[in-house]
Amino acid sequence: IPFHLFTECALIGQSLFGQEVYSNLRKEGHKIVGVFTVPDKNGQADPLALSAEKDGTPVFKFSRWRVKGKSIQEVVEAYRSVGAELNVLPFCTQFIPMDVIDFPKHGSIIYHPSILPRHRGASAINWTLIQGDKKAGFTVFWADDGLDTGPILLQQECDIKPNDTVDDLYNRFLFPEGVKAMVEAVQLIADGKAPQVPQPEEGATYEGIQKKENAQISWDQPAAALHNWIRGHDKVPGAWTIINDQVVTFYGSSLFDGSVPSGQPLAIEGATKPGLVTKNGLVLFGNDGKMLLVRNLQFEDGKMIPASKYFAAGETSAIELTEEEKKMAEDIKSIWVGILTNVPVIEDSTDFFKSGASSMHVVRMIEEIKQKYSGLQLHNEDVYMATKFADFIQMLVRRLRGEDKEEELIVDYVSKTVNNMTVKMPYQCFINGQFMDAEDGKTYDTINPTDGSIIAKVSYASVEDVDKAVAAAKDAFENGEWGKMNARERGRLMYRLADLMEKQQEELATIETIDSGAVYTLALKTHVGMSVQTFRYFAGWCDKIQGSTIPINHARPNHNLTFTKKEPIGVCAIVIPWNYPLMMLAWKSAACLAAGNTLVLKPAQVTPLTALKFAELSAEAGFPKGVINILPGSGGLVGQRLSEHPDIRKLGFTGSTPIGKQIMKRNKQKQVSAYCFLLTQGMGAVYFNKGENCIAAGRLFVEESIHDEFVKRVVRYLEGLCLK
């Protein structure tokens, strides 16, 4: 067991980050001899102060440490009184005098959210994104006179995703890993192993503080630069422009590929081309002709709306609450009272943020509401969309009533009257919750094998469509509602989907029959029936996937153990054959979804229609956008791109042995589940499902003396199977 020394620290800083560093240092055995933080704001103490006061740690709240460049002596004396061996500055907005920085025997260390020497200055995270860096990170360095030039103790870095915002980077990496790094740095100092590496001047940059007044968007730039500017200010301070003589701030930017969508033009001051208000948001144009999409807009009064609702803003009238909903409103009001302790009375006009709340209070409020109303799906962004109490209650009530659901899914169908019913069949790619044509507009004919007639012209997915579908699945897994959803709710969605499949089983079986040539009764009972049961079975597993614990030391006073936690792996690709189109889909996708993964599925080129109908039902069941994506098309094009795509974490394949071998060769580093055609024997193995079986026998050996009679009986047997 390694032996560690411990040190006595003064913590100088604020915020949840400071609070976490404080708590983890204490947990590791380091003594915090004093906490120096900012004064209470609007009657509320900083989180760091709250934790320290609760523990009985001395807390000092100074509004400043110096005046006109000179230290305030009574402040410095109060600091020196705690006798710290090391100053730890996890996040500090105040200027700390050098006679405080240099006072402890170990000096002072400070956290900086960039890979120094790049992006020195107080807005380092913003500039990392604004300048389009591919890597982000942080540095723990030995504090200097405030210019971020001190020797480096340790650094860590991470990749930047295409649509990362400041909040994304901070929450995913800079916050959690930064807390760990600060604790590690203190331990290195206590053990006498902390390095002091001089910062190189090569590559050094220093950028100014980004404030609201200098965050205005300059429109004469490529789309990528506009995107970086907007996301580099998301959420603070917010990139803005002038629309209809009003300051409008943009949030939720992403690069937008494909053809120009239809929408209503919106003139923007300084832009050479109007934006387009579309069903997905506000489409903007760079000077290179490329596009970006903005999801949310905020007006000068603080109100935030979905960009897609710009022209409908203010049209929604207030709804009258039922008695039960009024009770809920009182419950929510009590939560607001508990958070906004400086506000004597919560009124309809009370603004959450103007009353002193911050992002940490948003997290607290949402968690408290979810504890009281477990079935309610609520996200941080919802609070920013409705900051006043009355608006927030209206939003919640609409959410509970189901009135704020997204616009109804638009589906173009091919309709056919067959088997005494009219079947409606989607024929386009299903990507990110929408049916759409292939990127290049190509289609192909899917044929009824019974008579050779064309059933429909189906979208022929391209490599670009694969990339869009994988990106949607990845975003849904990492950032969307699916990744935040609890396992029980995931199971409810799968049960709902199974119910819808059962409700429309005759239509599904008929589509399966005309598209694959399956016998209708077999399609109804087996292809569809087993698919429904498969989804119900795996729906029940959603909240029963468990890890395990293994005792490793029974010695007292601590009973030590290790534990495993089973987690979803991410985006899965599924490639299925033509013999059981819907059942193969169910076998592979149900387990994938139950575990919390997202998927991109390529049905067999000759049997795509039940998979596309399944996509429609999944949207009706309420699966979030991007969780399920269906791409009809060529195995050599779509299947190959899926097998090679770097963001696919696992590939499930059923098909021929030669193709399986190719996939295995291309995916040595990827998990692959491949099932190939095998040979067996027996009458049932030959004729079950018209012989379209993974284990169907290729031939039967019959004694010569009974050959002719046997053939006659086979013919009669087959005639009896024909669908009249």
From TrEMBL:
Catalytic reactions of this protein: (6R)-10-formyltetrahydrofolate + NADP(+) + H2O = (6S)-5,6,7,8-tetrahydrofolate + CO2 + NADPH + H(+); all-trans-retinal + NAD(+) + H2O = all-trans-retinoate + NADH + 2 H(+)
Family: In the C-terminal section; belongs to the aldehyde dehydrogenase family. ALDH1L subfamily.
Positions of the Carrier domain: 323-400
Annotated keywords: Lipid metabolism, One-carbon metabolism, Oxidoreductase, Phosphopantetheine, Phosphoprotein
Biochemical pathway: Cofactor metabolism; retinol metabolism
Listed GO MF terms: formyltetrahydrofolate dehydrogenase activity; retinal dehydrogenase (NAD+) activity
Organism encoding this protein: Crocodylus porosus
Any one biological process term the GO annotation gives: one-carbon metabolic process
Annotated protein name in UniProt: Aldehyde dehydrogenase 1 family member L2
